[in-house]
Amino acid sequence: MIECACESTLRKEALFWVVFWKDMVCALSNIAIIMVIQWGIMNSCSCWSRWGSTWVHLPQIPEVKDELMHFIRHVAPGIVCAALVLHFLLCCAIIWWYLDAVRVFIQRDDGESNLGWWRNWRARRKPWLCGQG
Q: How far apart are CA 102 and CA 107, in angstroms?
């Protein structure tokens, strides 16, 4: 909104600096918020003990160690694999949806595709896929 308001009132040279400082302040405020959360709130023991209502779950405690090792060995690998599969599928979906943009991105300056080797290999291997034969 600040940028839209400034576009109609400021000159082009001044608009650049206003937008630059607006973006700088917003980026630094995001960094500050992350630092406060990571170094401040999450660095206190009360955060991990429900603000003092329970004890801190340290791995040295036998009851906690068994539960933690079960989580590390049985639950965490599934979560990691599911996240990796989801990221892979999401990347494939984005590439498929924006296939024309990918083609423009990988073409050379002379207009030819850098995937010529792929088409030649595919035509030799399975000619019916390329409309040949």
A: 9
> Any idea where the domains of the chain sit in the sequence?
1-56, 107-133
The answer, as to whether pTM is greater than 0.70, is no
**Residue type present at position 77:** P
| pLDDT tens-place string over residues 43-81 | 777 777 776 677 777 778 888 888 888 889 999 999 999
Cβ count within 10 A of residue 132: 10
Residue 84 pLDDT class (50, 70, 90 cuts): very high
DSSP string, the chain: -HHHHHHHHS-HHHHHHHHHHHHHHHHHHHHHHHHIIIIIITTSHHHHTTTTTS----TTSHHHHHHHHHIIIIIHHHHHHHHHHHHHHHHHHHHHHTHHHHHHHHB-TTS-BTTHHHHHHHHHH-GGGGT--
Strand partners, 114: none
Q: How far apart are CA 40 and CA 35, in angstroms?
A: 7
